[in-house]
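Query form — protein MFS transporter

QUESTION: What is the three-dimensional structure of this chain?
INPUT:
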Amino acid sequence: MQFAIIWYIARATDSGMMVTISTICSFLPQLFISLFAGVWADRYNRKLLIVLSDGLIATATLILAIILLSGYNNMWILFLVSGIRSFGSGIQTPAVNALIPQIVPEEKLMRVNGINGTIQSLILLVSPAVSGTILTYGKLESILFLDVITAIIAISILLTLRVAVHKKAAEKQDTDYFYDLKEGIKYSLNNSFIKNLIIFYAIFTILIVPAAFLNVLMVTRTFGNEYWRLTANEMSFFAGSMVGGIIMATWGGFKNRVITIAVGCCAFGALTVAVGIAKVFYVYIAIMVLTGMTIPLFNSPSMVLLQEKVETDMQGRVFSFVQIVSSGLMPLGMIVFGPLADIIKIERLMIITGLLLIVLGISIFYNKSFIKEGINQN
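ANSWER: The structure tokens for MFS transporter are given below.
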């Protein structure tokens, strides 16, 4: 549904500032709730947290659909609901990531994460096509109702899944929230791998902002604002991600998973430069497919390394810290790059950040302790 909201705003306003506000609303609430969500994921039933947060997202979406049907159509309502959905996602994400190693054997984590990434990409591949078709012939509220229906189905399936409560959640909690938070921070800071990964994600997150969030605006300005172009833009990227997920599920990456991350970062940077150079829409689309294929190269091994190396009772907090980096720095990046997109051509921003991503990927090879942590023992 977030595609539809962003497209609606980009097409209605053609404003980098409005797209920036929308992006901030989609990520900033995650930042605020993540400090709590990580501790909750370690202290309480993770399956229940996922169900409740998904229910919150669906309820907010349903209310928005009803408001739009009543004829009240204000851009700020869209921003508010984006914020509520972000809040729910902030609770859900650490719980989901920490739940996976509870139900999957360690030697199968890379394959399962690859399959999970493929499924997510398939959903994201279909979503733009559905959104584009509905927005072309119908209204935004139709997409909202569809989103609510799929959420109900997902919650129903999850409720049938039997998952044992992890050890810490089963114990009587004899420490307060802030003690658990402090212990999680101490654990993360004393772990060289987690520190290295968070630093990488911090720099990476800022540099991918133009490629991740300004491509919609670039398409509308450079190639045209028809919904079929926006649909092709999103579908091409997620088609590539789906293929990349299949590759990771079958291949598993290099034996050293940190090298897989570095190669993925360099490839993403090179293709971001190519996006900035592309002058023909169909060439641009082909490059977006290849760009999408690089995403699992750094997402899957990063997730697996955290699931393998972080203690089960600490995983919720560690995943929340990683989420804080992404949800906090994405809006910060948009505060910088969004307004710049109204002054400097987005293509130029793509080229500059793409080159910096290549430098970031190469620098990983010189971090010996980080490389050492990436060796796959299975």
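ADDITIONAL NOTE: Residues 133 and 326 are 31 Å apart (CA to CA).
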